[in-house]
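Subject: Protein record for review, amino acid sequence with C-alpha cells
Why sent: The fold of this protein is of interest and is recorded here as C-alpha cells.
Enclosed: The protein record, placed directly beneath this head.
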Amino acid sequence: MGFIRKNIIYPSLLSLIIIFFAVQSKEVRAADCALSNIRFASSSNTIYLSGPITCSLSQLKALKSSLPLYLVDASSKTWLLKANLKLEDGATLNLYGTSIGGDVNYLRLKSNNSSSANSIVWIRADWGNINIKNTKITSWDEAKKSPDTEYGKYKRSFIHVRSFLASDGITPKESRMDIIDSEVGYLGYYAAESYGLAWKVSGSGPNLYDKVNVYGDVINSHIHHNYFGMYTFGADAMKIQNNEVDTNVMYGIDPHDDSDNLLIEGNRTHHNGTHGIICSQRCNNLTIRNNKSYENKGTGIMLHRNTNDSLVENNDLFGNSDSGIAIFDSHENIIRGNISHDNKNGIRFSVGSSGNTTELNEFSENDGYGLYFYKGSDAPTSGTGRITGNKFIKNKVIDNGDYAVKLKEADLNIFEQNEFKGNSREINISDSNQNIFLGNLSDSFYNASLKAKNTIKDTDSALVKVSDSASSMEVLSSSNFIFQNDKSLPTSAENSKTYINLTRALTSSTVNFKRLNFKVKPAADKVDVTVLTWETSNSFGKKWKEKATSSVTVDYEVSDLKPDTKVDVLINGNVFNSFTSDSSGKINFTYDGNVLERTFEVKES
C-alpha cells in the first residue's frame, strides 16, 4: 500500500516493482498461434512461423489447412511433415505427446531417399524455440513406409536450431531446443548443421560466444540412428541427462566449438560409429559423470582440442575399439573415479595434453596399455606436443594385456601411489624425461630407452632396465633410505636424499633393487654406501662399506635388528660403540671420524 502526503497517494516501491514486472511479462509473453504469423513459400517448400507466438501442429493445420502437414493417423496422433518448417523472430513450436496434453505422439519428416528437389524436409529455428516432449520423431521414406536409413548417397531430414547476433553486432537472437522423455532417430547426413540434431551459434568475430549462445536440454530420451546423435556449437549450460544414445553413424554426444558449462550425466552411449562422447575445441567447464559408454568404434569419452577445466568422474567405459578415455591437446582437467576396462587401452594422452590430474580410477583388463602417452602426428594448439605436467595418483592399473604404462615423448609427469599389478608388462619409458614415479605398488619393470631420463622415487622395490646409453633412471629416496640391489651398486647419500643413478653401463641388462630399513644422512657433501649383508632373521647381521668425499658427520638409523638386544657397531673391524635396539629393532648413532673409506658391521654383542 502507498502512503499519503499532502493529499497525494504515492505508490510503494514494492507496488512499482510488481507493476514493472507485470508490464515486462506482458511485453515478452508469446502470443497464441495466429494465421498472420504463418506463411508458406511453395518455391522453397517452406512453412514460415514468425513472431513471438507459440504453435502446435494442430493449430498450424487448423489455421492454414493447405499446409503440407498431415495427420495420417488420428487415433495414434501420427503426423507427416512434407515441407520445411522454419521458426523466426522468437516463434515457438511445441511438439508434445498426448500423455502431457499435446497432439503429436509421432512426427514423421519426409525423407524420400532421392536426389530430386524437395525430397527431404527439415525443421529449423533461426531465433526460435523447439520443445519436444513425450513424443517420437524420425525421418520417413514414403515409398518404403519406414524411417529413412540411407545417409550417404542422398540427403536425409534433420532438425536444428541457430542463434546469432542481430545486424547491430550486439543484440543476441538466441534459440533453444529441449528434448524431454522422447525418441528421436534416423535423422541427418554429412553436411554442416545437417547431422541430425544440432544446436549452433552462427556468425564470426572476436568474442562471439561471449555475446550469444544456443540453449537446450536433452533428458530421459532415446537418440539413435542419426548421423551424429546430437551436436552442439556454442551451446551454454545444457543438461544432457539420463539418455540412451546409440547406433549413430558417427558420434553419440558431440559438444563442439565453445560449448561450455555443460552437464553430461547418467547417459548410456553405445554402438556408435566413432566416439561415444567427444567434446572438441574450446569446450570448457564440463561435467561428464556417471555415464556408461561402451561398444563404440572409437573411444568411450574423448576431450579434444582445448577442452579444459572439466571433470570426468565416475563413468564406466568398456568394450570400446579405442581407449576408454582419451585426452587430446587438452589441459587442467580432472579424471576421477572412472572404471575403464576391456577397451583397446585404458586411457591415452596425446598432442601436448598437460596439467591434468588422473586420480582414483581403475584401468583394468584392457587389450593393450593401461596408461598410454605419446606426442602423435597432429600439430598441437600450442607448445611442442609433448605430454607434460600431468599427475596420476592412486589409480589401479591391473591385468592389462600389455604395458601398465607406455610413456613416450612425455616429460615432468608424476605417478604417485598407483597400483601396477598383473599386467603383461609393467612400465616402458622412451624419449621421456624428468618423470617421477613416487611410492607406487608395482610388479616393477621399468624399461628406459631412447634418451629417457626419469626418477623412481620413494618406492619399495622395482626391476629396472636401461636399454641404451643415452638413457638413465634415478632411484631416489627423499627420506634417505639405502637401496640394496643385485648389481652391488652404491647408494649415494646426501643431506636431503639418497639415490642411485642407473645407466646402461652400470645395469647391463636389468637391476633389481629393494629399499632397506636403513637410513644414512651426512651433514654435508656425499657418502656412497654399498650394502654387503642385510639379514632380517637368525643373526640379524648387517654390513656395508662407505666412501666419503670429506670428513663429515653422518647420522645412521639401522632397523631390522632383533628387538631389545645389545649390538656392537664395528668400523673396519674395530668396535666403535655398543647399543641396545629398541622394541622395534632399531638403533641410531652418529659417526664424525675422518676415515673416508670404511666398512661398518652391526652384530649382536
Helices lie at 13-28, 57-63, 208-211, 504-507.
